[in-house]
Write a structure and sequence with these properties.
Length: 297
């Protein structure tokens, strides 16, 4: 599909299988065979894909990955401006969704170049559908920061998110991430870990975050997508004073403060730290009030 001189070409974003090659969309083979330029995240994986599909690329094949995305984008835009049909594929799933592609799409849109897509498999939607969690409203958060402090900070930003959340994670960081989620979202927040989707050893592990973190501590392999239930309406309605009151009620009934805080956090769908902070703030306020002769004795 060679472009005509003086007419801008078309950028095609093509979804590739996330596991089973039989899931490749029918149009993918035709686009691979006829594109003027094929930009691939990994040219070796592209070669394996074309062999599995029984097609041969006739256009120029170039690499397009995180390391060269900025430098190669102008070159691909130039090809598009020359009327070429440029096909963009990543290792798995849809380009630009936590994969290379966004820069090229943005540059093409800015130049008023046509951008279209060959819809294909998506780990985000597949995991969401298999999770057993609410699917009417959801958000995709991609990969969390690698460093522990930054990861906790990001999770705290979305602690009150009511929509179901979808994350990607590396297998060697999964246990730490699930433990951090349990700390911020609460031990009992429901979640699902989806592993090796559509592949031979596909597995979906469902349960509360604390239990999933304990399971992951034994070691998990493969491509990972984590789906987490959104915050409950109750959590958003409870102010710090009400949280403190509920802890006090449990303490008066004989529970230790640590256990009371954990129980209130679980029933409210909040991280234990948030309930703990409310209790500490109330305690400090009471002390200050007593010192001024205005508070509790």
């Amino acid at each position: 599909m060679t472009g005509t001189t003086g007419t801008t070409g078309t950028l095609v974003l093509a979804g590739t299988p996330i596991g089973d090659v039989a899931d490749a969309p029918p149009r993918l083979a035709a686009e691979l065979a006829t594109a003027d330029v094929v930009a691939a995240e990994d040219t070796r994986r592209l070669r394996r894909l074309t062999q599995a599909l029984g097609v041969q690329t006739t256009g120029r094949v170039v690499s397009y990955f995180e390391g060269n995305e900025s430098a190669r984008t102008p070159e691909l835009v130039e090809a598009l401006e020359d009327g070429k049909r440029v096909l963009l594929v990543t290792d798995a799933g849809m380009p630009s969704v936590s994969d290379p592609g966004y820069r090229l799409v943005a540059a093409a849109v800015e130049k008023d170049i046509k951008v279209t897509a060959v819809p294909g498999p998506s780990a985000v939607l597949t995991a969401l559908a298999l999770s057993g969690l609410p699917v009417d409203r959801f958000c995709f958060e991609g990969f969390l920061p690698r460093k522990g402090g930054e990861r906790l900070g990001k999770l705290r930003e979305v602690a009150g998110e009511r929509r179901t959340m979808v994350f990607f994670e590396a297998p060697h960081r999964l246990d730490d991430t699930l433990a951090a989620m349990a700390e911020v979202f609460g031990d009992e927040r429901r979640a699902a870990v989806c592993r090796e989707l559509t592949k031979t050893y596909e597995e979906v592990k469902r349960g509360p975050l604390k239990a999933l973190a304990e399971w992951a501590a034994e070691g998990v392999r493969g491509e990972i997508t984590v789906v987490v239930e959104g915050a409950s309406d109750v959590a958003r309605e409870l102010d710090p004073a009400e949280l403190v009151r509920r802890v006090q009620v449990r303490e008066e009934a004989g529970e230790r403060r640590k256990e009371a805080i954990a129980a209130v956090a679980a029933e409210a769908g909040l991280p234990k730290r948030e309930v703990f902070d409310a209790v500490v703030a109330a305690k400090n306020a009471a002390r200050t009030g007593s010192a001024d002769g205005k508070g509790l004795s």
